[in-house]
Amino acid sequence: MATIAITPDQDLISCEMFIAAPPDRVFQAITDPRQLLQWWGQKEMYRTTKFETDVRAHGKWMSAGVGVSGDNFQVTGEYLEVDPPRLLVYTWCASWTGDLTTTVRWELAPHAEGTQVKVRHSGFAGNADAAKAHGQGWERVLSWVQAFVEKGQTVDTRG
To answer: How far apart are CA 1 and CA 18, in angstroms?
Structure first.
């Protein structure tokens, strides 16, 4: 299970989780659009229908999907740092947060028989509601990638 913390100023969400797979496998799961489509989303919540990635510094990325209510969403950004398989940093601009652009940092470190995953999502600038919602979101996302990498579970097969 992921551990989640939000700084007192509501600017930074920190998440950590151990995944029983090597860092290169986790890195593939979080950067390959074919794999992302398989695990990112949840029945009766939302489904991601499109991922595009250009995984290099200054490359763009985009995710689109539909919520259970039928509302479309999109998240876009730019890769700031790419150092496979240990570091991925990108901007995050979600259609549901207006013009708020934040930064996501994935750190993947070999640990025992797998990978210690750290996600830092910053730039909420005291927006407590957005920070809380994204913190809950990252907790789900980390559990989804863990289930996919460790057990091959997808949006359609996860319980």
So the answer is: 8
pLDDT tens for each residue of 98-127: 889 999 999 999 998 999 999 999 999 878
Question: What percent of the chain has a predicted confidence (pLDDT) above 70?
Answer: 100
Beta bridge partners of 12: 122
Q: Which pLDDT tens digit goes with each residue over 19-28?
A: 999 999 999 9
- Nearest Cα neighbor of 114 from 48, 34, 16 is 16
Residue type, 25: R
Residue 67: partners with Cβ closer than 8 Å, 6 or more residues away: 45, 46, 73
Residue 35 contacts residue 29 (beta carbons within 8 Å) = yes
Say whether pTM exceeds 0.70: yes
Domain 3-43+81-151 CATH superfamily: START domain (3.30.530.20)
Number of H helices, E strands in the chain: 3, 9
